[in-house]
Amino acid sequence: MRKSEPNLGKSKSIYNLAMLRYSNISRLDDSTLLTEAYYEVIKELLVSLLARDGYKPDDHVDIIKYMYKCGFEDCDFFLIDELRKRRNQIQYDGLHISSDYLRRNKPRFNNVIMRLKKICENKF
Known about the structure:
single chain, 5 helices, Four Helix Bundle (Hemerythrin (Met), subunit A), two-stranded antiparallel sheet
């Protein structure tokens, strides 16, 4: 991760994109597409915070590790890191996600999103 100048405009723009994506998530009815969408929303909220705080991540792991600086705990990090791995398997291996996986984890994903949303809004 590299230090850069804080960029409030970029931060707000990425935040707005994440919220737009999140508001449309209910239109998806496929567990694989929903899994991807949840990952993208969480990633974009974290990228928004990184831009606001003046950091440029080198990879997606750097993005997710930033959760620790936002007050998240290991269980949250591991949940989202597992989501990252599933999203990569979807993208690169054609993995299909079971509806059971999403049913078990959707409330936790939503919780992370709401916490990140609040942190973003407090920084603007």
